[in-house]
Amino acid sequence: MIRERFQLRETIATILADEPGHIRAAKEGMIAARQELERHIASDPYFASTFEPYTPATGSRVVSRMASAARQAGVGPMAAVAGSIAWAGVEAMQAAGALFAVVDNGGDIALISDRKVRVGIYAGDAPAGRGLAFVIPPRQDVLGICTSSATVGHSISFGVADAVTVFCRDVSAADAWATALCNDIVPGSTDRAFGRLAGSGVCGVLAIMGERMAQWGTLPAIVRAEIDEQLITAGDRFA
Q1: H-type helices in the chain, by residue range?
Q2: What is the pLDDT of residues 124-164, one digit of tens each?
Q3: Cβ-proximal residues to 148 (8 Å cutoff; 6+ apart), any chain
Q4: pLDDT in tens, 25-72
């Protein structure tokens, strides 16, 4: 397995693949997605600044995905940026023939895999999240695994959760919902936040708040694991 870091301005990602050509494809896919987004923002700067759902009159595939995901989750389009760019990278790897493809864009992950993959859970100093990982079974279709935190990293959050991880086949939606739920969830009142997920397409959610853990939907198996913090990828601020 090849592991390579990739940085393009604010995008800082880790790519996992079996072949160098698949690494190149991931980079090309992410570069193309960023270029599409940058062109759109140059003519429509409100898209990059609003915290509210916003549907532009026109837009590329990545712009449309971000706007649709944000509308579902009730957040601004940029809440879906990292997941959307990761998704573009994995789709490019698939087009290049990859059966194993992982792009981790600052904790927002898109993947396909012909083998089991462990995805570590990182919730800072929260006791409930220490030394745990999800075991993702083999899958041919893309899965989004996106995490938002109010206490770890530089992302803007209006909540208190140490980590909210969302699983969804729509990677943009996984990213947007992670942000939305992290904004809403507080200890002891997760039901209201989770109640918004009906019909969303989200598969499962794990929320970690200090010593507490809450979940919704169907999650992969969670096992004990040694988490190497050197492998954690910095986030995508974009702008």
Answers
A1: 20-43, 46-49, 61-73, 81-95, 171-184, 190-195
A2: 777 677 788 999 999 999 999 999 987 665 555 555 778 99
A3: 155, 157, 161, 163, 164, 178, 179, 181, 182
A4: 999 999 999 999 999 999 999 999 999 999 998 879 999 999 999 999
CB 2 within 8 A of CB 17: yes
Domains, the chain, ranges and CATH?
2-228 (3.10.520.10)
> 2 near 23, Cβ under 8 Å?
yes
Selection from 170, 236, 182 nearest residue 214 by Cα: 182
This prediction's pTM: 0.91
Cβ-contact 210, 124 below 8 angstroms? no
C-beta separation of 125 from 229 below 8 A? no
The pLDDT value recorded for residue 72 is 96
pLDDT in tens, 108-129: 999 999 999 999 988 777 767 7
144-to-41, 125, 216 alpha-carbon distances in Å: 24, 24, 16
177 SS3 class: helix
Other C-beta atoms within 10 Å of 171: how many?
32
In angstroms, rounded to a whole number, what is the distance separating the alpha carbons of residues 44 and 22?
A: 33
